[in-house]
Amino acid sequence: MKAIRTAKIMYIGTSVLLCLAGLLLLLVPAASLRAVCIALGVFMLVFAVSKITGYFSHDPYGLAFQYDLALGILVAVIGLMLLLHPDRAIRAVSILLGLFVLIDGGSKVQTALDARRFGMRGWWLILAWAVLSVAAAVLLIFYPNDSARILMMLAGIMLLIDGSQNLFGSLYMVRTVNRRRHIALEDDN
After folding, report:
1. Which residues of the chain form beta strands (DSSP E)?
2. Is residue 153 within 8 Å of residue 29, measured between CB atoms?
3. How far is CA 121 from the centre of its chain?
4. Is 83:38 a contact under the CB 8 Å cutoff?
5. Radius of gyration over alpha carbons of the chain, in Å?
6. Number of compact structural domains in the chain
7. Which among 49, 54, 61, 89 has most CB atoms closer than 10 A?
8. Is residue 148 one of the residues assigned to a domain?
9. What is the pLDDT of residues 164-173, one digit of tens each?
10. What CA–CA distance (Å, rounded) separates 139 from 134?
11. How far separated are the first and last CA of the chain, in Å rounded?
C-alpha cells in the first residue's frame, strides 16, 4: 500500500506540474522554444520516473498504472533527447509532444474501457479527457509548422488537458481501487 501511495503522490505532483506548464505556455506563448525544450526535457524525466514508479507500485487491479512502464521509458528517451539536443529538438517538439500525449491519451482510452468493464461509474469522464487529449495531440502532430506562438498555445492547451486527465485519473482510479479493496476485505470477514 505504501508503494501505491507514493506513486499516487508522485502522479498527482507531476500532473499538477503538467497543468502549470500548460498554463505557462498559454499565458507566455512567446517563450523561447529552446528554453521550453530544456524545461520540457526535465519535466519529462521527472514524469518518466513517476510513471515507472507507478508501474511497480503493485496496484491491486492493475488499472491505474498498467501501461506506465513502457510509457515511462518512452518519455525518458524523449526527455533525454530534449535535454541533450534542444536545438535539433525544436523542429520536432510539437510532433514529440503530440506523440507523447497521443500515446498517453490512447492508453487512457483503454483504461476508461477497462474501468467500464469493472463497473466504475466515472469511466466516461476518463474517456472524455482521453478523447480531448488525443484530439489536441493530432492537431499538434499535423500542424507542426505554424507560428511559434500558436504552437506554444496549442501545446499549452494540450498539456493542460493531459495534466487534468492524469490528475483526475490518479485521484479517481486509485481512490476507487482502494475503496473496492477495502469493501472486499470487509466482505471476507
Report:
1. none
2. yes
3. 21
4. yes
5. 17
6. 1
7. 54
8. yes
9. 888 887 777 6
10. 9
11. 20
C-alpha cell at position 101: 500525449
Distance, CA of 78 to CA of 48 (rounded, Å):
10
How far is CA 100 from its chain centroid?
8
Q: Whole-model pTM?
A: 0.49
What digits encode the pLDDT tens for the residues 102-134?
888 888 898 889 889 988 888 888 899 889 888
Supply the range of the domain harboring residue 16.
2-182
Cβ pair 160, 23 in contact under 8 A: yes
Does some domain include residue 187? no
Q: What is the average pLDDT across 38-46? A: 87
Distance CA 70, CA 103 (A): 10
Residue type for position 44:
M
The set of cell numbers assigned to 47 is 514524469
Q: How many helices and strands (H and E) does the chain possess?
A: 6, 0
Cβ–Cβ under 8 Å, residues 132 and 157: no
Q: Is residue 156 part of a domain?
A: yes
Higher-confidence position of 3 and 131: 131
